[in-house]
Design goal:
CATH architecture: Beta Barrel
Strand order of the largest sheet: 1-2-3-4-5-6-7-8
Distance between the termini: 68 Å
Structural class: mainly beta
Largest sheet: 8 strands, antiparallel, barrel
CATH class: Mainly Beta
Number of helices: 1
CATH topology: Lipocalin
Strand content: 35-45%
Number of domains: 1
Length: 159
């Protein structure tokens, strides 16, 4: 009886060993913790990859990308937030981290106006998360350019 159990136990042990050591399939980028986004951020720089500067005149249906340099983004853990441009114009937002995109993990937000509830706002914006170590953050916004894609790159530091 003991010998009959040894073979299946050995086989199961080998299966578990190989399963634990194998490379996971269908992986995308690592999920990013929501906690790394909470706090007050300053957008220090806007740069371009595959785009000519001033090729994009308006982002977030608000202003030119350069108008966001110096803006302050206050993000709470509840998802509520507000960004204020250097010229003093403010916009209330509801933000979250989207961990299911085909391009990887994304920062997403919806603009809210007086009386809006986030669940009732269907449109918003998604930016690819290039990096976020809790002190600095880089977000990329894809822009179609002919048959290719360029990016507006937003670089933040945490206050």
């Amino acid at each position: 009886m003991k010998n009959l159990l040894k073979a299946p136990i050995a086989i199961l042990s080998l299966i578990f060993l190989f399963a634990a050591c194998s490379t996971p399939q269908n992986t995308t980028t690592t999920n990013v913790s929501r906690g790394k986004f909470t706090g007050t951020w300053t957008l220090n720089n806007v740069s371009y990859d595959g785009l000519v500067q001033n090729a994009v005149q308006n982002v977030f249906d608000q202003a030119a990308p350069e108008a966001f340099v110096g803006s302050t983004w206050k993000l709470t853990n509840s998802g509520n937030g507000i960004y204020t441009l250097a010229n003093g114009v403010s916009q209330t937002i509801f933000w979250s981290v989207y961990n299911g995109g085909t391009t990887g993990t994304q920062f997403q937000f919806k603009k809210l106006y007086q009386g809006d509830k986030a669940k009732n706002v269907a449109e918003g914006y998604r930016l690819d998360i290039a990096s976020n170590d809790g002190a600095t953050m880089v977000l990329k916004s894809a822009v179609a350019v002919g048959n290719s894609t360029g990016y507006i790159i937003y670089s933040f530091t945490k206050n």
